[in-house]
Design goal:
alpha/beta; Rossmann fold; SH3 type barrels; Elongation Factor Tu (Ef-tu), domain 3; 3 domains; 9-stranded antiparallel sheet; 5-stranded parallel sheet; 21% helix
Amino acid sequence: MTKRVVVGLSGGVDSSVAAYLLKEKGYEVIGLFMINWHDKTGVIDADCPWNEDVVFAELVAKKLDIPFHVVDLSEPYRERVIDYMFSEYKLGRTPNPDVLCNREIKFDAFLEAAEAYKPDYVATGHYCKKETSLINGTTIQHLLAGDDPNKDQSYFLCQLSQEQLARTLFPIGHLQKSEVRKIARAQNLASAGKKDSQGICFVGKVHLPVFLQQKLKAREGNIFEIPPTLPQYSSEKQDMSDLEAVCSPWVYVKEDGTWTGKHQGAHFFTVGQRKGLNVGGKTLPLFVIATDVQTNRIYVGQGQNHPGLFRRGLKIKSGEIHWIRRDLEMQVGESRDYLLRIRYRQALQEGTLQMTENGLYISFQEAQRGIAPGQFAAWYDGAELLGSGVIDR
């Protein structure tokens, strides 16, 4: 019996080729386009979030001779992704809307909408792979990195569950991006030469302060420059046996530095940021090394190698730990070495996970640049993504 697959047809080349490959394999394919955002506040003029994409998606569907439908998921997207973004920035944290979009929309609300077409599976154009095995009598879904190291998107799926993965296919995970383009051109798909989307998932490329000012007011505050020779950088904090110290952020007060300018709101900035400070006359570029939304202060340092940008560890609260491989969930007192990343496209880093009653502590062999609360840390065993969590500090 022919299996039916609903493909999230976005209008881009990746989902287009995913639909083509599934049809070639004999699946009954249905294209479903998601409208997730209507508001253009803060969106950079050249970027049209969806009304051009839906045209490309429909052209691809016609070329492949598959049914095409559109579903409006803008309400759950606003409630579960955008409102979450605003609340996190208000607290001085840096959320990752793409991870939330996958967990809450593409692999949840979209799955629910696709049920109207009674599919056996849904499919997306993500550069990742899935394998299924039987372990101790239980069927286990394995989420693996895509074969193209420059396009691997497994990190963005770090919050998915076994149940979500069981219903999903990733048809292009074994391909290089160049191969996907080649297939699209060979099949004369309308999206063959279309540029990859950028910016916030489904919103597009935005001017972040303008976008955030829909709900977060501008608020003038002070910028203080911290010298790279501050005593704490060479203190006992570097003792790797002290988990609390290693996994805590650098903390500053205004007396640690020198006043160097004004800003329009600490909640508009994140650790590692360079743009938007509007402070000149320095030997090296300034980078944000800490923000304090309570006092509305920003602390900066000169140069991309300022010690305030680097930390050896982080902490994840107990309630924010997520295991894709639930069978491997760590117990209190347990310690394991894994490969880790704290942002998309970052090379995997060696580190140690230590589970405690207070949460999960992650210490790295090499100091990491720009650890930001609100982002996701993900851990891997080789190519397999095992779990992730929201960085608390």
